[in-house]
Design goal:
Blueprint lengths: L1 H20 E10 L10 E4 L6 E2 L5 E7 L2 E6 L6 E5 L5 E6 L3 H5 L1 E4 L2 E4 L7 E5 H4 L7 H5 L6 E5 L8 E5 L12 E4 L2 E3 L11 E7 L2 H4 L10 E6 L5 E16 L9 H15 L11 H4 L2 H9 L5 H5 L3 E14 L2 E13 L6 E14 L4 E16 L2 H9 L29 H5 L3 E19 L2 E20 L4 H4 L4 E25 L2 E24 L16 E25 L3 E12 L8 E12 L8 H4 L2 E15 L11 E6 L7 E6 L3 E2 L7 E14 L4 E20 L8 E24 L3 E18 L6 E3 L2 E2 L7 E4 L2 E4 L17 E3 L14 E5 L4 E11 L2 E11 L2 E3 L1 H7 L48 E3 L2 E12 L2 H4 L6 E15 L19 E11 L1
Parallel strand pairs: 1-7, 13-16, 32-35
Antiparallel strand pairs: 1-4, 2-3, 2-5, 5-6, 8-9, 10-15, 11-12, 13-14, 15-16, 17-18, 17-49, 18-19, 19-20, 20-21, 21-22, 22-23, 23-24, 24-25, 25-26, 26-27, 27-28, 28-29, 29-33, 30-31, 33-34, 34-35, 35-36, 36-43, 37-38, 39-42, 40-41, 43-44, 44-47, 45-46, 47-48, 48-49
């Protein structure tokens, strides 16, 4: 009994001891920087599977025993482990924001906002990602990287521009692409003057609720570019350079031997009249000139393409210096870029200098200066050079007996037969561009939360264009040399004043107010002179006074201005309900007095679901972020010709006395002015959501938009009785709707191995909803229910005529001729047999980016794709069908032409005069229409980051070396040379691959 009593007493003491160690632990979790309490923070102890969540005041209560280890985690903050002693009953935990969360700041119109608070459709890309491609134009680096943004190069010649479209087709005739805001200065034109190495980030405002703060010029989106600035700390020096070579991608596979080439031409002439011109060498004197016959006899084959193309070098060097000393920050950068063209004579050289400075004069006053200057020399070879090199007879000689490029004069007419491509490469168009972008600003903090900012920006651009066409070219042959000089430029001035106020009456309510007034003015000038009849070609355009003829002297001048008032209110409730409202009032001198002012409002809202208390901790362990967004806004388009509201005057003369003419002016009959013109207005709704999973390693963004565009500006043709050719009007309407999806996945993330992917996909559908009253079609390419200027309208190809077919549709046809369908069944082929045979608007497009790192080695690859559209590939048809009326060269597939023994083919009989194509009244049919789907590998980069342990002794912060292949592969079923070449599909400048080596050094 005593043993039992002793055992019970021992258990009782043990139980009381355990009870004594159990206690209530209270705590509070707050932001380490602001000390604001954090709600819905997960708090748990090691070994406890049921975590608790903090309340709205950041407080939590746990029942614990003895020493414990707390784990505190929250979206956007670093997870913290905390040792709690057995004696602790109350603690305070301060959470630090993660570096990623701190860095996710998006630049919006006239301000910045944390990404988690964004209520609109805004996509961003960092300067580091932009540098992955060696481009001369910033837009080229954005191709396939931003959901909803289409970037198509305007050509492959060095210095070529781009065509940018954000979220579909937004206008009928006056699409100029998005506006660009560089460090607060609104600019126009392609931004090839800006060095991509100087860019810190790019933010694209895609929907109207985001872009409405820019009002009348934001209908096609806004691209905000923020350049680099110095950080506080020691002086940093960076050097970024690459050198590479560009190699031409093979074009069409042309017939490349004398026998096949000569045989085709003989067949073509003999087909016209086999009796008069029997197939054989006897007709060579009719087909070939003396130069060709001599080369035939000697077996000489001219490689015209090889004579004008080259493996071209490309190099870039950027050195930057940044210094943050005390309250002053300074950033200086210089760049030299030199890109030779694949075609000899073409070249692009850019010198750029950038300087930024900020200084805190006092605790309340900060001033700064942003500047960017560039000098560009761009030699552009005529588009005719490569086309001629592809199509000229390979039996013609490049050089004459003196070693000069041959002139090839037709002895019968005395005119040039063609422009020698080598001559064209030696006479490029010489462009010199100078551009200065900059602004000076000051910020003054009036009271806590209230800041006044004033900024004065300037954009000065000057282009000089010099052309000379020597006597050995068709343009200069008869005129004994032609010289052209033009000067074009503008000066933009932008003065902006804003007042920003941040007001938080409590932790649950936060307001951000913005009010501003801006004024922008442009002065633009152009002058042009053309002369001919020079005593020699040696001086080219360098002495216009030597011209015996002053052919053209012209000039133009205009200015416009926009005065604006703007306002914005952002309200946050409990940090999870966000409303953003903006309005802008623009007054533009480009419209008449009755419609000079426009109002552009917007409202958007976001609901951060992830921060709601009803979202359980188990759900939060998987879902890190969830936000719904919706917005509506109105934006405008003012891009009309400056004189559209005026009826212009033109020179005139009249013989009042019946003999002598008196010079004067008269009304121009081209365009009738319309002072009642007003803005195009785009009303856009956007709905989207953002989702992050598994510690933000999976991020998904989806947006749907619907745009109704009203009062479209259109140059309407007038009846002859009106006395004018056309008049600008506001009348049509259209709709564009679409979806953008972006997915970022961090597949593997360890110390030694890292794998990330970024995928985006977009599509849209644009259609005209109304044109003129009672009119649903103004042309075959402008119809209600279709996207403007997106249709391919032509005859429907119906194969080749065969022996025994019904030839009633084309009584003059023969077997082996092209046949088209009689769609209206009237027994003849006419314009009413043309129909829609393709649409050029893609059904979808996007990009795929991936990054893999193993220790110090990394590989980056990027591809873009487009599908669901058709391309009118006329070049392929012309090179396939032999006819001197289309092309004198034929691809090898063209050797499979129709004969009585070879009827299973789509290639008609060769005919020198194009008789086998007589059914093609427009010269084309659906035969030339092909699918334009493609996937292009844009970039593959393999890099090595030298370990810091090896660099420390040399006082080098970082060193990265890399090799890169640009556009190494293309996957497509398209039969042309390039599915991105654009309308017309002819060879004007070959596409190329680039292989380069680069290094990035930081001291």
């Amino acid at each position: 009994m005593k043993k039992v009593t002793l055992l019970v007493f021992s258990f009782l003491l043990l139980f009381m001891s355990i009870r004594a160690q159990t206690r209530v632990l209270k705590g509070k979790v707050a932001d380490a920087e602001t000390r604001a309490p954090l709600a819905n923070v997960s708090v748990s102890t090691i070994g406890d599977a049921t975590p608790r969540a903090t309340g709205a005041d950041g407080q939590f209560t746990l029942t614990v025993q003895g020493k414990v280890i707390l784990v505190i985690s929250h979206v956007g903050y670093k997870t913290q482990s905390l040792n709690v002693a057995a004696s602790d009953t109350a603690i305070e935990v301060l959470l630090q924001k993660t570096t990623e969360a701190l860095g996710e700041v998006v630049v919006i119109g006239y301000g910045k906002q944390q990404k988690k608070d964004i209520t609109s459709a805004i996509s961003s890309i960092s300067g580091k990602e932009l540098k992955e491609l060696p481009v001369t134009n910033v837009n080229q680096a954005l191709q396939g990287r931003i959901p909803g943004m289409q970037v198509v190069t305007a050509g492959h010649q060095p210095g070529a521009g781009t065509n940018v479209r954000i979220r579909g087709i937004n206008t009928i005739t006056q699409g100029t692409g998005p506006i660009y805001v560089v460090d607060g200065v609104i600019v126009t034109y392609d931004l090839r003057e800006i060095n991509p190495n100087d860019i810190e980030s790019i933010d694209v405002l895609k929907d109207a609720s985001a872009a409405a703060i820019y009002g009348s010029r934001a209908s096609e989106g806004v691209v905000i570019i923020t350049t680099k600035r110095a950080n506080s700390g020691r002086t940093a020096v960076n050097y970024d350079a690459y050198y590479g070579v560009q190699k031409m991608i093979k074009t069409y596979d042309f017939v490349d031997n004398i026998n096949d080439y000569v045989g085709l031409r003989r067949k073509g002439l003999s087909d016209e009249d086999p009796v008069a011109w029997p197939d054989g060498p006897g007709i060579d004197t009719l087909l070939f000139n003396g130069d060709e016959r001599r080369n035939m006899a000697q077996g000489r084959w001219t490689d015209w393409v090889g004579a004008i193309t080259q493996t071209a070098p490309q190099q870039s060097h950027t050195i930057s210096l940044s210094n943050g000393f005390g309250k002053n920050k300074f950033y200086l950068s210089g760049n030299y870029l030199n890109q030779d063209g694949i075609i000899r004579g073409s070249n692009f050289i850019r010198y750029s200098l950038k300087a930024n400075m900020e200084s805190e004069i006092s605790a309340k006053l900060k001033v700064g200066v942003n500047t960017n200057f560039s000098h560009i020399i761009n030699d552009v070879v005529s588009n005719e050079a490569f086309y001629n090199a592809v199509t000229i007879s390979p039996l013609m000689s490049i050089y004459d007996s003196l070693g000069n490029p041959s002139a090839n004069i037709d002895p019968s007419s005395g005119n040039l037969l063609f422009n020698n491509p080598v001559t064209l490469t030696r006479s490029p168009i010489h462009n010199v561009d100078d551009r200065f972008l900059g602004n000076i600003f000051g910020e003054y903090r009036i009271i806590k939360g209230l800041t006044f900012r004033t900024s004065f920006g300037i954009d000065v651009y000057k282009n000089q264009r010099f052309e000379y066409y020597p006597r050995t070219t068709s343009a200069g042959f008869a005129k004994k040399g032609v010289a052209k000089i033009q000067n074009f430029g503008w000066r933009d001035y932008l003065w902006e004043n804003t007042l920003a106020y941040n007001y938080a009456p409590s932790a649950d309510h936060v307001f951000d107010f913005l009010a501003g007034a801006t004024y922008q003015r442009r002065r633009q000038e152009w002058n042009y002179e053309e002369g001919s009849g020079f005593p020699t070609d040696e001086l080219t355009y360098k002495n216009m006074g030597l011209a015996s003829n002053r052919d053209v002297i012209a000039s133009d001048y205009f200015n416009w201005s926009v005065a604006s008032l703007l306002g914005r209110v952002i309200y946050k409730f409990k940090d999870r309900y966000i409303i953003n409202g903006t309005i802008r009032r623009d007054g533009s001198s480009r419209f008449g007095a009755d419609n000079r002012y426009g109002y552009f409002p917007s409202v958007s809202a976001a609901w951060r679901l992830i921060d709601e208390p009803f979202i359980g901790l188990k759900t939060r362990s998987v879902i890190n972020d969830a936000k719904l967004r919706v917005g509506y806004g109105v934006v405008g388009n003012q891009e009309i010709p400056i004189p559209a509201i005026f009826t212009q005057m033109s020179p005139g003369a009249y013989p009042y006395n019946g003999n002598t003419q008196t010079s004067g002016f008269q009304l121009s009959t081209s365009t009738q002015g319309n002072p009642a013109l007003k803005w195009e207005s785009q009303h856009q709704v956007n709905a989207g959501f953002d989702l992050a999973l598994y510690s933000s390693r999976v991020r998904l963004t989806v947006d749907y938009y619907n745009k109704n565009i009203r009062d479209l500006l259109m140059n309407n043709p007038l009846a002859p009785s009106q006395g004018f050719d056309s008049k600008w009007i506001n009348i049509s309407e259209m709709n564009t709707r679409g979806i953008d999806i972006g997915l970022k996945v961090h597949i593997i993330k360890t110390t030694n191995f890292d794998w990330q992917m970024d995928i985006n996909w977009s599509k849209f559908r644009s259609k005209i909803t109304s044109l003129l009253p009672g009119v649903d079609s103004l042309s075959p390419w402008l119809k209600v229910g279709e996207a403007p200027n997106s249709l391919i309208v032509d005859y429907v190809y119906d194969g080749l005529y065969q022996a025994g077919d019904d030839f009633s549709l084309n009584p003059d046809a023969r077997p082996g001729d092209v046949r088209v369908k009689d769609l209206d069944k009237n027994g003849s082929i006419n314009q009413y047999d043309r129909t829609i045979i393709g649409r050029t608007v893609p059904k979808g497009w996007g990009g795929i980016w991936t990054y893999v790192r193993y220790k110090q080695f990394s590989m980056t690859a990027f591809a873009n794709y487009t599908y669901g559209h058709m391309i009118a590939n006329k070049a392929y048809q012309d090179y396939l069908y032999y006819s001197s009326k289309t092309a004198t060269r034929t691809i090898k597939e063209g050797l499979n032409y129709w004969t009585p023994e070879n009827t299973n083919t789509d290639v008609p009989r060769p005919n020198q005069f194009g008789r086998s194509l007589r059914a093609l009244q427009s010269g084309t049919s659906s035969f030339m229409v092909q699918k334009g789907d493609f996937i292009r590998i844009r970039n593959i980069t393999v890099a090595y980051d030298v370990p810091s342990a090896l660099l420390s002794k040399a006082r080098i912060n970082s060193l990265r070396v890399y090799v890169q292949a640009v556009e190494p592969f293309l996957f497509t079923g398209y039969k042309g040379i390039d599915p991105e070449i654009g309308v017309g599909q002819y060879d004007v400048y070959p596409r190329y691959r680039t292989f380069l080596f680069g290094l990035q050094l930081s001291l």
